[in-house]
Amino acid sequence: MTRILIDIRKKAYPAKHGSGEHIAIQDLRIELGAGEFVCLVGPSGCGKTTLLNLIAGLDTHFDGGIDTDQTGKPLRIAYMFQNPRLLPWRTVRENIDLALPKGQDGKAVDHLLDVMGLSQSQSQYPERLSLGMSRRVALVRAFAIEPTLLLMDEPFVSLDAPTARRVRQLLIRVWQERPHTVLFVTHDLREAISLADRLIFLSPSPTTVLHQVNIDIPRPSREDEAVIEAFRNQLISGHPEISALL
Amino acid sequence: MALDSGSPCRNDGVLAIMRIAALMRLAFLLPVLSSLLFLALWQVLASLLDSSALPTPGTVFLVLYQEIVSGQLPFHLGATLARLLVSFVLAMSLGSLIGIFFGQHEKLDRFFDNWLVIFLNIPALVTIILCYVWFGLSEVAAIAAVVANKLPNVVVTVREGARALDRDLLEMAQAYRFGRWKTLRHVIWPQLFPYLIGAARTGIALIWKIILVVELLGRSNGMGYQLHLFFQMFNVAGILAYTIAFVTVIQLIEALLLKPLDRRAKRWRR
User: Fold this and answer.
1) At residue A225, does pLDDT exceed 60?
2) pLDDT of res. B10
3) Considering its fold, how many domains does chain B have in total?
4) ipTM (interface predicted TM)
5) Per residue, what are the HEC states of chain B?
C-alpha cells in the first residue's frame, strides 16, 4: 500500500491588473496513510479546489510536490468533481468505460453499477438522469479505475438530505470493498465526521493546515445522527477556532 | 368587458386549437398542396402571358427531360457538383483548422480579427475576378475563388465553437488521463460538431450560388456556363429546367446527408 505526501510550499496566482499577486496556498503539508479516508474541512473559497487540482496534476504551476513511497509507479488518481462532469453525448456506460485505463476489463464496472442501482440506466444519456443519479455515475467512474488516490471535491452538494445520505452510504460501502486513500473536501462538518478517519481543518487563504482530528467512532454507529452531533459539539467546544471557520 | 366575454373566448380558443390539430394531421399533405398551387399559378400566368419569356411548366419539364436524356444536363451538373465537392471539402477543412486555432489563441485571434472582417465583406464577384486575373482562367482559379469566398465564414463559425469548449470536461479528460486522441474524439469533436454542421449547411447554400458565377465568368462547362449560353439564346425554358434540376439536387443533399447528420449529433439531447 502507498503512503502519499503532499507538500505545497507555495501556490500563487500572478498579479492581475490592479490587484497584486494572490497567494492561494502556503506551506501546506499533508501526509496520507495507505487506505486512509481524510476529509479536508475549510470555509468556502479557501483554496480547497485549487489544492485538489494541484494534486490531480491539472495545474502544475506551484512550488512543491506530490510524492509517494512507492517508487517507479505513478499514482493512479481518480477525481470526483463538484459537478458530475459527464460527457452528455456519451451514454452512462461509455462515460465510465472511457475513463478506464488500457487493458482493464469491465467486470468491476458491472459490479459497481449494480451496487449503485444504475444497471438499468447504462445505455441512457446523462441529460436524462437526475442529479443524484449523475453523481452516482461519477462515483462509479471514479471507483472503476481502481485508483490509489481518490479526490472528491464536495461531491454531494446540492443534493437533498436523504439522497446525499444514501450516496454517502454507497460511497462507504464500495470504499470498504476495496480500500484506497480518499481525500474528501467539504465545508459540512457533519458530513466530514460521518465519513472520515481523520479531519484536517484548513485556514482561509493563504491556505495552510490549522488543526487535525482523528475520528475513532466505529463505522456502524456513524449511521446514528446523535453520535455525529455529539462528536461535532464536543469538537467545536474544544476548539473555538474551528467554529470560527464554519 | 373581459369578464363578460370570458367563456365565449375560451370556446374560441378551444375551436382554434382543434382547427390547428386538424391541420397538423394534414401536415404531410400541405407541402404537396402548396407545390400544386404554385404550379397552377405558374400555368395560369404562363397561359395568360403567352410569351417565350415565361414558358408553361409542361414545356419546362419537357426540356428538363430532353436535357437529361441527351446527357447534357448530367454532364454540366456533374462538373458543377465536382467543383462543389472539392471547394467544399477544402473550405471546410482549412476553415476548421484556422477556426480551432483562433478559438484557442486569444491574442492571435484579436490580431487577425480585422483580416477576417475584411475578407467576410469582400463581395464574391471581386474575389472571383481577382482569382481569374491572378491565376488565369483555370480550374485552380475557379476553385480558389469559391474557397476564398467560403473560408472566412467557416473560420468564424468554428471559432465560436472552439471558444465555447467546456473547460470542466477538458479538465475531467485530463484528470482521467484520456490522452490526446481520446480527448479529441470524445470530448472536443462532439462539441465542435454542431458548429461544423452549421457551417456545412450555410456553406453548401453559399457555394452553390458562387460557383455558378465562377463558371459563368471563366469556365467552359458546368451549370453556370450552360445558363450563360441559355441567356444568350434567350432560352428561358432551358434556364428554368436547369434551375429545377439544381434545386432538387441541393435539397436532396440537405435532406439525405446534412439533416440526418445533424439529427445524429443531437440524439443525446433531452
Assistant:
1) yes
2) 58
3) 1
4) 0.88
5) CCCCCHHHHHHHHHHHHHHHHHHHHCCCHHHHHHHHHHHHHHHHHHHHHCCCCCCCHHHHHHHHHHHHHHCHHHHHHHHHHHHHHHHHHHHHHHHHHHHHHHHHCHHHHHHHHHHHHHHHHCCHHHHHHHHHHHHCCCHHHHHHHHHHHHHHHHHHHHHHHHHCCCHHHHHHHHHCCCHHHHHHHHHHHHHHHHHHHHHHHHHHHHHHHHHHHHHHHHCCCCHHHHHHHHHHCCCHHHHHHHHHHHHHHHHHHHHHHHHHHHHHHCCCCC
